[in-house]
Amino acid sequence: MVFDAPPATTTAHAWMPSSPCGSGCIEQADRVGTVLVIGRLFAVLGLLFSFPLLHVVTPRGKRESLQRRYAGMLLRCLGIRLRIVDNRGTSAPVGYGTGGGVLVVAGHIGWTDIVAMASVQPLGFVARADMVDWPVLGGLAKLMRVIPIEREHLRELPGVVDQLGQRLVAGDRVGVFPEGTTWCGRAYGYMRPALFQAAVDTGTPVQPVRLRYLDRNGAQCTVPAFVGADTFASSAGRVLRSRGMVAEVVLERVQEPGTDRRALARRCEAAVRGATPSGHDARESTEWIEAGSTRVQDPSVGADAADPVRRPRRRPLLRGRGHRTQAA
């Protein structure tokens, strides 16, 4: 059975795409019992409330190790195991790098992406601005020094790129999701080049990461996708009820920044997608992207269009991005 999602559309400006993924992309998975769900929930809350205190009392030199262990425990408490695959062909320790700043790029599926990627090695993120207001996770986002981005306001993008560049120059590892929105994991958008400008400006290497979720049988799983009409509560409940999920984080070969952000974005996209064709090279066509049981139309959207209207700032609802952008 193939789900034909409607074509992607834009809202405030062309840089802010809306994912066509919705509830039809989410498949049922094996579930655990109510008692285990409650146990997982209390374990997660215990970790999230204890981390800020331990972070303060831990010596600065040991905080990175603490953050990695906590992220790993949080992932396990959510019922998700971690699998790391290193395709870089080097003898370097598994991680995003320790010799200076690095920009880490990945496709975006849901809020669990941040936990999975931080379980490999701690890093900051460029994330939606309203995340700092989320229950419990907001405090964690502040400790992770999240760089907030208001996707509705294109004119604020240069400031975000500048902050990102400063963090890279300071030697930080920072993760970004250049698709601009969340997708179900089987279908995906193309990587917008804007945030790659920070790597080009600072000469920072880029680490592409291929992230996907698998069920207990090894098949690709869409349960963690934060799409459509999802709220944080509905998404978290679905994850906590799941059984046997695995977050697979594949480290692909590091890309040198070069001088062209668009070329860098395409190289990283090719690395992240692997052998899976993206269908995004023909920008003017209406190619269909097929993967598993999901089929969506290619959102051929210009990434660098100017912001036509300065819209009033407002705080978005805690809903999946497809729903939020369609309602804007």
Structure description:
- It is a single chain.
- The protein is of the alpha/beta class.
- The protein has one domain (3-327).
- It has helices at residues 34-57, 63-77, 112-120, 137-143, 157-169, 197-202, 232-241, 261-273, 321-327; strands at residues 3-4, 80-86, 102-106, 124-128, 147-149, 173-176, 206-214, 245-251, 288-291, 294-297.
- A seven-stranded mixed beta sheet has the order 2-8-7-3-6-4-5, with helices on both faces. A three-stranded mixed beta sheet has the order 1-10-9, with no helix packed on it.
- Strand 4, helix 4 and strand 5 (147-149) form a beta-alpha-beta unit.
- Helix 1 (34-57) packs antiparallel against helix 2 (63-77) and helix 2 packs across helix 3 (112-120).
- The two termini are 31 Å apart.
General form: globular
Mean pLDDT: 79
Largest sheet: 7 strands, mixed
Q: What's the Cα radius of gyration?
A: 19 Å
Low-confidence stretches: 1-10, 276-319, 321-328
Q: In terms of structural class, how would the helical and strand content be classed? A: alpha/beta
Strands, total number: 10
Transmembrane segments: 37-58
GO molecular function, one term: acyltransferase activity
Pathway: Lipid metabolism
Keywords: Acyltransferase, Lipid biosynthesis, Lipid metabolism, Membrane, Transferase, Transmembrane, Transmembrane helix
